[in-house]
């Protein structure tokens, strides 16, 4: 990850992608973008609706070089996307609390991405394979444990594709950055990591006896 | 929490707050809003900038009946907020992966909130006490372990207050909801919980020896 370095592809001044606060934490590298998106099952998709910004938390998955959003064909979000309206998707994962000697220098460690674009509807032909990839991203290891899609289900699921051309990434890692003159103070400074993990799977109340959890799913879901 | 029930305060049709997808998961109760916001250290703040929706992941804290956003006075976000521009803040926490017998009925368990409003700048007089509350929300138990604020730090920190008047909450909990005819299928169904916890605190590389982590901070940060 290209953290704490400005790479050569910084967008010009005034460009909406350009990170202006703490630009040393910005990245415009595609690998960094993919890593952040892949760590975030939820994106906050914002669009303009009746002169208000409207943000909707939505399941997202990066598949190859595109971002896919998943929703209901009749939702406001899907209608905006299918009408080609401009959207912004932001995603963020918090990795730790950063405790400095001064409240001012407290921070968080995080990985975030912001993507701008317009959506394209996935066609009926493309949908089954992409929905499989989407599901496999969100519930890794589940794919071999479903009954087949019904035609009405394919029709009832909206999948929208977004190009990953306009984006920025921002990543903070490591220690607090205290003022030089504060380092000798008798205050604790450091990082409290935030860890996310899968808990023990809980079977559905209405499940028949004798159905084991698939190995692939369990492998992912082990604490 | 008022989950899976429509309460009596549903906003009218067409209202931007109104949850239209899975309205049975919507809540317009203030207690639910506070619980969701308090569980989310990051909000995705969207505003309109040059006819694009722009969403910025930002540290947030709910203090009493308001939401506070924290940032740099020169940031685009802060400028938009201080100019009274319309903003939308969304926050979401994922609690589990919901594996159904069909891919179509897979889902996630989550708690999310969407707030609409315009910001008001916190005055210099109000700032010290509110910044303390803000810091205590983000790094619980840290407040007694900082040197005092410097005047330039207070000036260099932007704090914006948002009223919590226009909002919606959406919460999903519990089992997958499979089609009746799928329940007898030999596929595993249930929830894989996602658990978030604090790891062992890591002290700053430049910290002098013999400075213990404060008890209050440790109590919060214990895995």
UniProtKB/TrEMBL annotation, chains A, B:
Pfam families for the chain: Pyridox_ox_2
Entry-linked InterPro entries: Pyridox_Oxase-rel, Split_barrel_FMN-bd
Annotated segments matching region Disordered: 1-25
Name of the molecule in the record: Pyridoxamine 5'-phosphate oxidase putative domain-containing protein
